[in-house]
Amino acid sequence: MTTKCLFLLCLCLVPFVVFSSTFTSQNPIDLPSAKPVPILDTNGKELDPRSSYRMVYTNRGPYGGDIYLDYSPGSTAPCPDGVFRYGQVGPMGTPVRLITPSHFGPGVYEEQQIKIQFVISNVEKCGDYTIWKVGPYDREERTSFLETGQQDSKSCFKIVKSPRLLGYELLTCDGALVGTMGQRVALVANYSLDFDFEKVED
């Protein structure tokens, strides 16, 4: 009787052993990777790194306008070297181009590491000075302002969806929030830029 019971028990365990063996570390389950979310312009079209865009205030309200390039206060640089935001709606900002890793595909995506470059007419003289970067820490203002520098600038950024409005926020690649102090674009604790991309027609 005991031998019969042991035999029946073994028969019951065989399917369980075979089934469980398929889920060992040698046979991991492949989970689908998250699909990157493309960034859209004001017309609902995906951004193209070969095109130029203006960074415009999401609400088009009285609290801010487009992003533009100008000289930083006290600058002795040969070209405009500061990132600013108009304090009112109206003036058109300086177009930008988003530089993406070449292996990442043709689009621009949320959370993707990018560089930002102003697109200017005086390329021969100042083209190398238009890449955005985080400037040195300003002890008086207790922040770092965004500046422009040469092509080898190591600063990089990420664009993410704004949790408050329909537009986007800008972060540095190490997670610092980008916003404004007065009209200067700087690293901030809150109050992000909240912007959209408006395509510049050729």
Automatic annotation (TrEMBL):
It comes from the Eukaryota. One of its GO terms (molecular function) is endopeptidase inhibitor activity. SMART domains: STI. The keyword Signal applies. InterPro entries: Kunitz_inhibitor_STI-like_sf, Prot_inh_Kunz-lg. Residues 1-20 form the signal peptide. PANTHER family: ASPARTIC PROTEASE INHIBITOR 10 (PTHR33107:SF54), KUNITZ TRYPSIN INHIBITOR 2 (PTHR33107). Belongs to the protease inhibitor I3 (leguminous Kunitz-type inhibitor) family. This is Uncharacterized protein. It comes from Solanum lycopersicum (Tomato).
